[in-house]
Each structure stands twice: as C-alpha cells, then as structure tokens.
Amino acid sequence: MITRVRHVAALCALGTALTACATVQPPQQRPRPAPSSPAVRSSPPTLAPGPSGLTPVFRNGPRTPGDKAVALTFDADMTADQGPRAAAGERFDHPRLIAALRTLEVPATVFMTGRWAEEYPDQARSIGRDPLFEVANHSYSHYAFTAGCHGLPTVPADRMRADVERAYTAFREVGVEDPMPYFRFPGGCYDRVALRALTPTGVTAVQWDVVGGDAFATDAEAVARQVLDGVRPGSVVVLHCTRSAAPTTERAVRTIVPELRRRGYRFVKVSELIGAADGRG
Q1: Across-strand partners of 266?
Q2: How far apart are CA 113 and CA 111, in angstroms?
C-alpha cells in the first residue's frame, strides 16, 4: 500500500499528470455522494400500538432534567357545522399568534381540523410548509369521539376512521404535503372504542400534561401563569389557534416563551418528544 501511494505521488509530480492526481484516492476510501444527490427523508417517529393493538397514546416526553425540552401545541379548531358563523365574520384562525411564534422562533405542532384547513387554505399551507412547524390531525369535523364531551356532537364509531382520513385529504388538497401521523381527539375525549377504531390509520394519539386554559380566557397573564406553573421537562402544552375562542393566546405566548427560556427550557415539536420517548430521539 505504501509503495502504491508513493507511486501515485510521483505521478502527481509530473505536470502532465496534475489533473489525474486530483482525482486519485487511496483504494480503501469511498467517493462521497454528489452534492445534488437527494436526501433520504426518514419517517416521523410514532409509538408502537398499545395493549390489544390499540392506538398508542402519548402524553409527555422523557422527564430528563439535563434536557429541558417542552412542546407547545396549538389546536386549530373549527367544527364541520361552523361555516355559517365564519361566513358571518367569526374568525377561527389566529394569524397574529403564528406570526408571534415565527418572530420568537418557537417550533410548534399545530393540530388542525380538516374543516379549518378548508376555511383557511392559505394559512394552512403556509404553516404546513414552514419548517418551524408541523401539522397534525385534529379530525375533520371536530366532533367528539365519545359521548358527553364538552357538548360536542359525536362521531359514530363506524365513521371515526373516515373522519380522520378525511382531514388528511383536506390537508393535502390545500397544499400541506407532509402532515404528521399524530392525532388529537377533539376535547381530549376518547375510550377503547375510539382507540380501536383508529388503529388502522397508524396514528399516535397525542394528549398533553399541561393545560394552558386559554379557551375562552380573557386574562393572558393567568394563562401564562398556568402554563409556567405546570411545565416540567418533556411537557406537552395544549393551547389554541382560534382567535374567536382563545383571544389571549398570542399575548400569553409572548410571556411564556422568554420565561421558559430563562429557566433553561428549549422548545421542540411533538415529533422530537415522541422520538425521544421511543428511544429514537
């Protein structure tokens, strides 16, 4: 091997061989891929099915004191029958909240209903294509998957899977190309029937361990205090991206983010917490 390398070096000394010298490599080295080679995209992390093959449920990431990660999540709620209210001027979006997250450079996961994406296609597409965010499924209709869930209408068990799949169809139709395989039950309500119904979709159900309390709240400071008092390493915080029903969220976030950073927390998307919980983060 040493003799071969010396022979190559001798060739490089010749002016007529300079070009060849630049391309000669020791035999044991492999050439690097061309810069234009497409990157291989890995699949988003998910949890393995639960007992009896039921849809797995994720509530928080690892409680690692040395890695104080927290995920802010925002539910973009709009039920299937709220079209007339939107037409009359009610706003179910919250562009100032999204702008604040961008300004503060906060990664976040937006759980979006299919009906919301249809009502605000430009915003849905903008969120879905921004690497700061990830879009996850909050059903198409925002109807409950169990009875007696905060007064929401109920999806029949034989329509639950279709409702979730319809939301993914709505996302793709408005230009959200890579929605995540995560699902949040409307109202946070579920039972074994609902978990069984969604097993074929392959989603991981995502709940939370910190309730922001911003729904219908009028005191942004109270919302911020509730979040700050509840956050621990690995927490998933549930807030809302709905201007009419959660008007204080943007102001609360502007308090929450700098204070948690001061305490040593870093903001991540839900996918990072799930990957860490599954030993893949």
Answers
A1: 69
A2: 7
Cα–Cα separations (whole angstroms), residue 169 to 56, 98, 113, 136? 22, 23, 11, 12
Per-residue model confidence as pLDDT tens digits over 217-275: 999 999 999 999 999 999 999 999 999 999 999 999 999 999 999 999 999 999 999 99
Q: Which domains does the chain have, with CATH numbers?
A: 72-278 (3.20.20.370)
Residue 279 has a pLDDT of 56
**Residue 11 contacts residue 21 (beta carbons within 8 Å):** yes
Which among 186, 236, 188, 224 is positioned nearest to 73, based on CA atoms? Answer: 236
Report the chain's C-alpha Rg in angstroms.
Answer: 24
Partners of residue 204 on adjacent β-strands: 182
Strand-pair category, 108-112 with 133-137: parallel
For 187, which DSSP code?
G
Quote the CA–CA distance of 184 and 198 in Å, as a whole number: 11
Give me the pLDDT at residue 278, please.
74
Asked if 84 contacts 110 with a C-beta cutoff of 8 angstroms, the reply is no
Residues present in the chain in total: 281
This model's pTM is above 0.90: no
Q: What is the pLDDT of residues 157-191, one digit of tens each?
A: 999 999 999 999 999 999 999 999 999 999 999 99
**Which are the contacts of 32, defined by CB distance < 8 A and separation ≥ 6?**
none
Gap between the Cα atoms of 34 and 16, Å rounded: 27
